[in-house]
Design brief:
- The protein is α/β, with parallel strands linked by helices.
- It has two domains: about 375 residues, Rossmann fold, CATH 3.40.50.2000; about 270 residues, Rossmann fold (3-Layer(aba) Sandwich).
- The strands form five sheets. Strands 1, 2, 5, 6, 9, 10, 11, 12, 16 and 17 form a ten-stranded mixed beta sheet that branches. Strands 20-19-18-21-22-23 form a six-stranded parallel beta sheet, sandwiched between helices.
- Helix 20 packs across helix 29.
- It is globular, with a radius of gyration of 27 Å.
- The structure holds ligand 26Q.
Amino acid sequence: MFTSTDKFVQAYKKLFQNRYAFTYEQGTTEQQYIVLATLIKNQLAENWQATREQYLNEKVKQVYYFSMEFLPGRQMKSNAYNMGILSEIEKGVAELGLNFDELVEAEADPALGNGGLGRLASCFMDSLASLGIPGNGNGIRYQYGLFRQKFVDGHQVELPEYWLRNQNVWETRNDQSSYIVRFGGHVWMEIDHQDHWIPKYEGTQNVLAVPYDTPMVGYRTNKVNNLRLWSAEIPVEEEENYHTVQETDQIKGITQVLYPDDSNYEGRLLRLKQEYFMVSAGVQSIVRQFQKYNLPRKFFPEKIAIHINDTHPALVVAELMRILVDEEHLSWEQAWEITCKTCSYTNHTVLREALEKWPIDMMQSLLPRIYMIIEEINRRFVEETLPLYGEKLTWQTAILQDGMVNMAHLAIIGSHSVNGVAQLHTEILMNDVLRDFFTLYPGKFNNKTNGITQRRWMHLANPRLTQLIDSKIGEEWKQNPAELKLLKTFEQDDDTLEKLAEVKLQNKTDLADYIEQQHGLKVNPQSIFDVQIKRLHAYKRQHLNALHILDRYLRIKDDPAIDIQPRVFLFGAKAAPSYTYAKQIIKLINAIADLVNNDPDVGDKMKVVFFENYGVSLAEKIIPAADVSEQISLAGKEASGTSNMKLMANGAMTLATLDGANIEIKEYVGEDNIVVFGLSSTEVDQLNQSHAYHSKSLYESNERLNRVLNALIDGTIPNAQQEGEAVFDSLVHYNDEYFVLEDFDDYIAAQDKIDQLYADKKVWNRKSLLNIAASAPFSADYTIKRYTEEIWKAKPQCTDKEGVQPLNEPI
Ligand code: 26Q
């Protein structure tokens, strides 16, 4: 790379001058960042090209991960780190007299996703590259990412997030790989002179899909993968047809903005346009790639795997059929075999309101040819299934139902693999949500528990902890996370435990400084830092957390001299702009924070902080400082969760319901090192089926609960009367859909247990260490290995990574 700090300094100065024609000392921090990032990007260009060419020459099998969302986080530091030049760069930047951390913060954090699903896609991109697996991301280059959240008088206000303002150093626009995507118009079929049925199109709206490629750098490998994000433009030859700004905006509007809803699906035409736009451009570019391999078409599934990340890209199935049948002139049967062998699908939700279904007439008019193909897929499916399984099951699994196109059904029927994202979630899919399909295709179903990249979430976000681990067990764990379990041998070692506590305290002090600077609020780093960071949703039950806070507050008011473990409650969450109840919960928690933080009776015993604009960059600051990880969704609702894994790996104790991957966390860390409470998913099912739940009688009979709930409506919380009433009503009068009141007592008891454990520092530190030691199985490297071996059948292209073996047993 750079042979010396001097060389780096020279290269930096030269590049700065070339670009701006003044010296770097005269530049803004943004300009100084841009030059540094460009210098780093230039260093990886050669490997990027070499990787692409090698894969092409050797006709290597490639994986394409189709996702409407990616949340990569800032990339300068992680790229430098993965390239192995971070310390060199830091030295050089110091030599220049610049502040590296300031330059890092000058980079925009691309919020091209809502939450877990998008962040998972980015963790997977990191693992694919780091394992040397030929993996490509395929998504949308939204001009505006997920809204920037501000609080005005405690209410969420959404501001546009124009992340491209200062130029995106990491992307490369590749005009030569642009494709046309067609919408609307009319289609009819004609026979050509070779007896092929050819679709004829009239009156279509043609949109140019231009790819912007971003390098995905592997950790200590020379392989560089590609993330391809598509942007919508007017085709050059059609520019003259577009006269008004409105007409132009309509096209560009396709990739203008990310839909900010992660749970409540709304059938908007623009969203369907976005989905097909990404799918069509992506599949066309894959077919072009395969053509370069010069192989018979039946080898397609041996060289290409396409992964469908939730149903959002499910049109891949129909688009691949369209290209193989209409453009490559394969028979329907041949095309269908290739399609099913190529595609695989991951489900990320069991919430019924989140399942994508598009009105047939909308799809028919926007995508006439695609709809014809879906109709034919459905016709053949019904024809085959009906005689074998009868009417009921056939209609329940059909793609076309009640005037709607069921996207999950399309994805399942067109894929060879269907997976859930945690053991419990996969079981719920097989036994409940997708039971009929499990009857039809038991062999398609499999589990792939989510994972996280330790590079971003430990090595980079928590250097102090990383150094401590290195000093105890060496550096091998960075290549092979299973080694983390060696930490267990230090569970009784006072020196290690004290150092671990010191690391945590320093991280908490850093976060406390940040809180003071951002919120003007002083918090005591010696308190328990209790963290709930995730999208705001009733099923995730941030309001249960709020009820506990209120209960504690009332206890302190009863007896201001009470001997209680000091706590800081930390929240980070965005609510979908249209989700009124979620926004009311935000306002309520902010009002409780005002009350608690300004009450002199409370003092240091308790503080509440709701961070604005939670996202990847904030998570990197919060997670290393967490003591308690709140994973309190109603059992059966959270598919997996991934913040639970990040917090555990940073030594937080999990306070959890038996939901999603929490169950696996418990298995790995052991029941003594996690605090579990609440209904099980089976109990939730039973309560639902028996109709025996009456939240109002709990309100009336449980004194403690009664007092807390009354505090929502009796003026205890100033400035949130309406919101308090809304929460009260949903819990008491509308029978509490997510069983908050049922789980309340058990949750309070679990919180008291946390206090008790924390009181004995040695006990706590030991548990914290054991959590870190048991977090290895949640490495995304292992998750990706399993996808690669069991679903995609691709091969790592760097031999030094073959030692990475998944770890299955509890430590
Ligand atoms: C769908 C249609 C129209 C508009 C938006 C959407 C949409 C967008 C995003 C629907 C869902 C999402 C995101 C879902 C999500 O993030 N799910 C989470 O995925 C994580 C990774 O598997 C899991 O850990 C979480 O449990 C799950 O909630």
